[in-house]
Input
Amino acid sequence: MSTIYDSIIIGGGPAGLCALLYLGRGLTNSILIERKGIGGLVSSTEHIENYLGFKSIDSFDLIEKMKEHALEFAKDSIRYDEVESISDFDKEIKTIKTSDGDEYKTKSIILSLGTTTKSINVTGEEKFVGRGISYCATCDGAFYKDLEIALVGGGNSAFDEAIFLTRFVKKIYLIHRRKEFRASEVLVQRLKDTGKVEFVLDSVIEEIVGDNKVSSIKIKNIISNEVTEKNISGVFVFVGQNPSTSLIENTPIKLNNEKYIIADMNMHTSVDGIFACGDVIEKNVRQIANAVGDGAIAASEAIKYIQSL
Output
């Protein structure tokens, strides 16, 4: 008879690793399946300075510590594979199939699917991720103290992040492809009042330039086609995130209009025995600290569910 797991976690970011730790400590027979490398979006930044207990830590080192800690209590429990489908939602034992052709049976599932940042798809962006390109102001803002940076975006989140960055940077070139912003007038005025922003409108970044790290950007005005170059030390991109929920679209698991998973305060989804945690759920703050908390709650609730069967 094939193994029936107590719980299977899908996704290996901080939320998933914390869930694995708690499931291991709960003496459950559980595994974590991750399609890429462990770490999730944490891997896209270089240093972490806002996770309690570490004044500054390399993102790779933090993830390795999390992974090692989880595996202390859940040995040999990580599988590197891509989940292709989940089925038997209405049954006590659910089925997971992977791209390697494996089939897993489990009493519960924890979805820690994470998100992907929307990129601006320009030359140099991928090359300089973690070396001048950032998608998180609270993660990386302090590294640009008294420096000039560029920021791409025009919505509320972009302006929130820009206002936060003004605590550190000397100047922000805020680049937006339109004249009008989607952000509220209150946020726009608040950013203007800092005296640290220059709006570069009707414009897009055409290229990000540098050797080992970002040193300048080429900006194209989409009305006149004029290209100018500005010397800056970093580029912050805030054009949105995409929840990684394609796996569960058209399933009984409820998503909101932006396709984030709807979960209650105890990480329960709309399907019994399926829990969700981390950046993939509907919430306002997406940081390592609350992802880890989500993972702890999801695992604790999964253990209660398993015991109730």
